[in-house]
Amino acid sequence: xxxxxxxPASYISMAEAEPDLSTFENKxxxxxxxxxxxxxxxxxxxTFLVGETREPVCAVKAVLAARSRVFHKMLYQAPSPxxxxxxxxxxxxxxxxxxxxxxxxxxLQNASQQRGYTQQLAPIQEPQSQQHQTLIIEEFEPDxxxxxxxxxxxxxxxxxxxxxxxxMNAADYYGLDExxxxxxxxxxxxxxxxxxxxxxASAERYIQYKCTKSLVQKVLEFVDEHGNEVLNLxxxxxLPQHVVxxxxxxxxxxxxxxxxxxxxxxxxxxxxxxxxTTSLKDVIGNFLEYIQFKKIPASMVMQxxxxxxxxxxxxxxxxxxxxxxxxxxxSSKLSSNRIKRLDQGRSMSIQSNVDPYGSITTLxxxxxxxxxxxxxxxxxxx
Length: 382
Known about the structure:
This protein is mainly α and 382 residues long. The protein has 18 helices and three strands. 53% of the residues lie in helices and 4% in strands. The N and C termini lie far apart (104 Å).
């Protein structure tokens, strides 16, 4: 028998340091192949009709079930609500009578043949788990859901500010925690002056999901810090009306009052272009409570604002009087009834419910936040 050889410790450590050449990984190639698989409808066994347009998105059920417990329950444990059993076709009465009367004779003549070929001719019943399913997804937009399916099949996806909020909420909805955390980490670097309005607009679509609160809080903090820049953006006009007011009413907003007025005017003109029967003066009236005209220089009030005829004269005169002598400003012109309505509106737009993600602000879209300013009777304490 050969004698055992004792190797030096230094030799053993060098051997252990060598790379293991027995293991080969090609994750990028696998991801590309899985992406190709999901892009070929004939290779998939489930089709999702997504959004209002019912855009088709194909996938492989086994992959979805393995990666998401929510999809596993949806596809394998719960019956598909879209699958309906079709009633058997109605046969002609004469044809049915001839068929029944000829069956005994055929059975006697072809008994032996039928025994030999019954198993061969019988249709193969496909297992329910292998049947192609069609499901409707109304909770998410097609672009968002397609990115989710791509991530499930390949393990990677390119995050974009436009679809970030939808992907984050979809990941949370379908139990994909790693993707949700990745979206949360991407939030901080994707919030810029160019994307902030798009993020706020998308928040309206996913306001019912808890992840939205976390993102909206961070976006509003960014808006506060870059108030003048955000209010001057053309994309500011794409925001819903209650979101515009939510921004203008914030005490933390670092923007001068004339810029706030210009932003409201720009938004109002865009709104009236889309709604020609609406008066611009009525639209602007919805924002007057949130603009402190007393802080706008008198020259700008008289040269830029007064000639427009959109702000009631008593509001502008009260602002000029305050600048001349603060003691002359009549704060009693803001009625207690309007103060009550203003406080109610603010409480509906800004809530202080802390969620698991540490959010303290929620975005509301209650129509009761509408102030009755379309009558043109605006009083002012500014």
